[in-house]
Amino acid sequence: MACPFLRDVVDEEALVLRRAFSGAFLYSVGDAEQLNKATICCTIRSVCLAIKALADVFISFPGHRRLCDIKEEFYRIAGFPNVIGAVDCTHIRIKAPSGAHEADFVNRKSFHSINVQMVCNADCVISNVVAKWPGSVHDSRIFRASEIYQCLSQGEFSGVLLGDRGYGCQPFLLTPFTDPQEAQQAYNHAHARTRARVEMTFGLLKARFTAFTN
């Protein structure tokens, strides 16, 4: 016979991962684990806070490798030099919040979301995350208000990020040419292939944690 107190001390992480991996409703998780919704919500919150407390240990810009190695790995993709990260935003769907600012969370696709900025390296490892802005806020505004923008603009890192046309071109953030000439087309091609790593990162993240897509 199983010890009656085991449920209090085991599998909190497993419960949270079941929710994150499957995207299952809380009631479904609760039925499977024989727990009520309030207990599940409390458990998910406590585990997520513990993960958040460790975030800076694992998520560090520009990464845990030498800067020259990060640049070399990006260069191998399409010959684009001096790249230390690819940046973009992705929308994480949320339940409509209550209060006066509810409309701020409605994005251009007309659903409620958090617009999350991420920077990744050539191996699709996330090196920076900003996850606090409502869905209506533009990607470029999030970037300009971010700590990583301040660090790059002050020259703390030697290298550039790659971003899409939604961002303004900066000495430390390179974007594609609009209506490129022949030589610029080669630049755009290398830029697109290299920057695609951040889109791949979003795809991998949402495939692994399907709760982000529900």
UniProtKB/TrEMBL annotation:
Compartments reported by the entry: Nucleus
A Pfam family recorded for this sequence: DDE_Tnp_4
Keyword Nuclease part of the UniProt annotation: yes
Superkingdom: Eukaryota
Cited InterPro entries: HARBI1-like, HARBI1_dom
CC cofactor: a divalent metal cation
GO cellular component: a single term: nucleus
UniProt keyword annotations, A-Z: Hydrolase, Metal-binding, Nuclease, Nucleus
Listed name of the protein: DDE Tnp4 domain-containing protein
